[in-house]
Specification:
It is a single chain. With 509 residues, the chain is α/β, with parallel strands linked by helices. The protein contains 14 helices and 17 strands. Strands 1-14-13-17-15-16 form a six-stranded mixed beta sheet. Strands 2-8-7-4 form a four-stranded antiparallel beta sheet, with no helix packed on it. The protein has a four-stranded parallel beta sheet with strand order 11-10-9-12, with helices on both faces. Helix content is 37%, strand content 16%. The relative contact order is 0.12.
Length: 509
């Protein structure tokens, strides 16, 4: 099929051979699971269990709060030890409310949700509700509640479904292995998504450096060809980072450019990850909530890189131990995600959550740890930026704390892919500067909205107080007028009474 041009991007050293031939292994639950209540974009879930409670695999641990939230389920059977604050898998090292669970070693499933045997005759709203109830979120990294995206079909016309199997980040192979080993389940999930969104044009995008995944997915599509009437097309896309960015994937597949700070749905497209499709299939067909995911554990410091099906709440230290530990300890860098957009981990004693598809322990030979040099204004960062920005100018404004000027140049539109920093001959950490700038600008926006809200509340209170005071003055004036009228009436009545005897005396005379 025709592919459209997209700007920028870089050719990276993929290093996928470290784990790409390692079949997915199911990891047994460790001795302790630390399950955060915030594993998704939106509001944290609220616990429904207490210390001492026994739970089975898949039982509800925490319920969602608000429209953008997701429930949390037990990754295995065991006993709830406590609900406490634990370090989050985030560079800040801040704590997050978590449930500590002691597995009993039996890994017994509880009473699952009732399966929807034929999802293609069910009401799409029922499927959306099931996906929400199962706690499915986007497994490509954003961890946005999937039910919210599925609900778009009822409100926004969606004409194209793009399934993201690009997996363009170096080292990561979890989606590749999933497509190779469980292509049928992925395709079934894709069809359920398409049915729910009422979409007939389906494109599964896989980078051309994954020939076995392309073959497996094409074969799985062919197995159901009579059912889908050729609607599903597996597309080999160029191997170039950041091809897996949903904004650029949509443009490559459809030719539609998503406006700045808008969503794919605004151009009639929905994008879902291949692992998300499989999770949807499990929720709908089997009634199983999302309690684990495939994680690539790789990097030059890892003794035996693997792809592991990991229960949520497993500590990174347990993952590394399952891979026979580290050949270089401590590693030069420990990341959650890929090396381009991944987040540094503050410690090994942090848990795997729904949005983590990779844990990388990089050796010193795999990173550049030298100093940065002054910008030579070569323009390389401009040529590789997939968003058409001018990084070398934006970074000067950020360095001098002129964030409004950086915003005027489009720093908010940066997708954080890191292509500019990767290509920079001066090794300037451009992406980190832009992350900082966006964080500061977002904080200033929150402060401004808070100030405006407080101002509106204060103005509203002042208006209410004035209204109350005016009502009091009017009531007082009415009482005074009524009192004066009463007094005048009494005076008039007294005067009339005084006149009556005088008139009687005059008649007698």
């Amino acid at each position: 099929m025709k592919l459209f041009r997209i700007r920028g991007g870089v050719d990276v050293e993929h290093r996928k051979e470290l784990s790409s031939e390692q079949a997915i292994r199911v990891m047994a639950p460790p001795s302790r699971l630390h399950v955060p209540l915030q594993q998704h974009a939106g509001v944290s879930a609220d616990p429904v269990v207490a210390p001492g409670d026994r739970v089975l695999k898949g039982d509800l641990l925490a319920q969602p709060q608000g429209a953008v939230s997701a429930p949390i389920h037990a990754p295995t059977s065991g006993v709830v030890l406590e609900i406490c604050e634990r370090m989050a898998p985030h560079p800040s090292g801040l704590s997050v409310r978590s449930i500590e669970l002691e597995p009993d070693g039996e890994d017994r499933w509880g009473a699952c949700l009732p399966p929807i045997e034929d999802p293609f005759t069910a009401d799409p709203a029922v499927i959306t509700a099931r996906v929400a109830e199962a706690g499915v979120v986007g497994l490509g990294g954003a961890a946005f509640p999937t039910a919210v995206k599925l609900g778009l079909g009822a409100r926004t016309p969606i004409d194209t479904l793009v399934i993201n199997g690009a997996e363009c980040e170096p080292y990561l192979t979890c989606d590749d292995r999933l497509m190779r080993e469980q292509a049928g389940e992925v395709i079934d999930g894709v069809r359920i998504i398409a049915y729910t969104l009422k979409v007939r044009d389906i494109r599964i995008a896989i980078e051309s450096n994954k020939p076995q995944a392309l073959e497996a997915m094409t074969r799985a599509v062919g197995a159901i060809e009579a059912d889908h009437d050729g609607r599903i097309v597996v597309v080999a896309i160029p191997t170039r980072y950041p091809m897996g960015s949903e904004r650029h994937l949509v443009q490559l597949i459809t030719g539609h450019e998503i406006p700045a700070r808008r969503l794919p749905a605004d151009v009639g497209v929905a994008v879902h990850n291949v692992a998300t499709a499989r999770a949807i299939r499990h929720a709908v067909r089997l009634g199983r909530p999302l309690v684990s995911r495939v994680v690539t554990v790789s990097g030059g410091a890892v003794r035996r890189p693997m792809n592991l099906e990991v229960p949520f709440g497993t500590l990174v230290s347990d993952l590394l131990e399952a891979c026979d530990g580290l050949a270089e300890d401590p590693p030069a860098r420990l990341l959650a995600g890929g090396p381009m957009m991944g987040q540094p981990l503050p410690d090994r004693e942090v848990p795997v959550i729904k949005g983590i598809g990779g844990v990388l322990a990089l050796s010193w030979g795999e990173i550049h740890d030298g100093p940065s040099h002054p910008c030579i204004r070569c323009g390389t960062c401009v040529s590789v930026c997939p968003c058409g920005l001018v990084p070398f100018e934006m970074v000067q404004y950020v360095r001098h704390d002129r964030l409004d000027d950086a915003a005027a140049l489009g720093v908010r539109d940066c997708v954080g892919c890191g292509s500019c920093a990767y290509a920079c001959p001066s090794h300037i950490p451009l992406a980190q500067y832009f992350h900082y700038a966006k964080g500061r600008l977002n904080a200033e926006d929150r402060d401004r909205r808070k100030h405006e809200l407080m101002k509106r509340l204060a103005e509203g209170r002042t208006a209410r107080m004035e209204k109350v005071a005016r009502a009091k003055r009017e009531a007082l004036a009415k009482r005074k007028a009524a009192a004066a009228a009463k007094k005048a009436a009494e005076a008039a009545k007294a005067a009339e009474a005084a006149k009556a005897p005088a008139a009687g005396d005059a008649g007698a005379a």
